[in-house]
Design brief:
This protein is mainly β. The protein has two domains: 119 residues, Immunoglobulins (Immunoglobulin-like); 295 residues, Pectate Lyase C-like (3 Solenoid), CATH 2.160.20. The protein has an eleven-stranded parallel sheet, with no helix packed on it. A hairpin with a 2-residue loop joins strand 34 and strand 35. It is elongated, with a radius of gyration of 31 Å. The N terminus is likely disordered.
Length: 460
Amino acid sequence: MKKLSLIYIIVLLGVISIGTSCKKPLIFSNGNLAFSKDTVVFDTVFTTIGSTTQQLKIYNRENRTVVIDEVELMGGSNSPFRINLDGLMGTNFNEIELEGKDSLFCFVEVTLNPNGGNLPMVIEDRIRFRTNGKDQYVILAAWGQDIYYHYSDLSSGDYDTNEGVWPNDKPHLIYGAAFVDSAKQLIIQQNTQIYMHKGAFLFNYKGTLIINGTKEEPVVIQGDRLEAAYDDVAGQYYGVYFKEALASTINYAEIKNGTTGIHIEGNGEQSAAPTLTIRNSKIYNHASYGILNFLGGRITAENCIVAQNGFHAFFNLAGESFDFLHCDLLGYNTGDQQTPAVAITDYYQSTVIGVTGSIRNSVIYGNIDGEIVFDTAGGGNSFLVDYCLIKRTPIGTAPLFTNIIWNQDPAFKNIAERDFTTWSTSPMINTANPAYQTQGNLDFNGISRGGTPDIGAYEF
């Protein structure tokens, strides 16, 4: 009887062994999971607007499989954070097997609720990983900011219309469009931060837009993704659009990372006044154009830096008039396609418009040999390019080009960092015409140009 029992036990153990031989052995972890980061940080997230997705990687450094007893989002269902662990959404996960020398992904997002305040807020939570009774934590942190929210559903015609003065105590976020309607006036004060969602634009339709930044506190217009990976991504929104607008002004603005920084179409004034007068502003890293002057638009620009856009810094596409004084109109396109910094044509499809244009005391330069091109279909045009430094082969001739410094390096300090001030070797120093004066005879930095000014937006 004892012998039969012993045989039975041996057979039973053999069956168990056969049944488990295809599985890797499980062990109790010593709690030594490793993580790609100990804190997942979101900087900055606008309230009511979801964040991008951040990634956390969990590693098993052991040679054998580890069982993670529990993974818990400590804030539970009330947490503003959301986690996806290895493809599953939730706040609590149990008995997760992680094979030796393997890893799994945890994806984290956050949406913050408004707090009614003006100052940024910090929201935190934690993810707890429990293995064999030992807890390890990864901190989740988000810097949140309440906003002024502008939303237009363009498909339904439900437009967000604006007039008066935008406050500048909190950022403004535009979804769809923010409209300045016919005969209305909108003033945007210094230090106003404007963020635009994908495809959004600030649209001045037959109204007046006044942007009043200062050197110390410019108005900044950019996309609404604030992660470092988006710092230099073009095409995040459309831009600032003037459609048959009344005389508008921009002073000390920084407009970056859109599709077309400034788009002017038509002119709402009965007189010859510019549709837009822009001074002391930087317009850069747009997917298409820095400034597009289209079908009868009129623009005057002083002390402006327009650089590193996808196609042209300035494109006059049958615009009626333009006047650039002490400006940097630069190529240095960041994409594969290198195109002229300035392109001027007097027609669009079958429409031909006589163009009056001048570029004075300015620099037109970039990576290619011909940084300014003309394509004209009709008469009635009047162009003047005077006292400029230009990169162009072959060089231009009078009467279109006069007093030009051809194909000499402007000696910018740091093109990659968009520092277009110059070294002492620059041929632009003391070579501009003092008869052409900007407002107050000051440069971009508010420095007096004196008796013999420099070409471009900056005095040395």
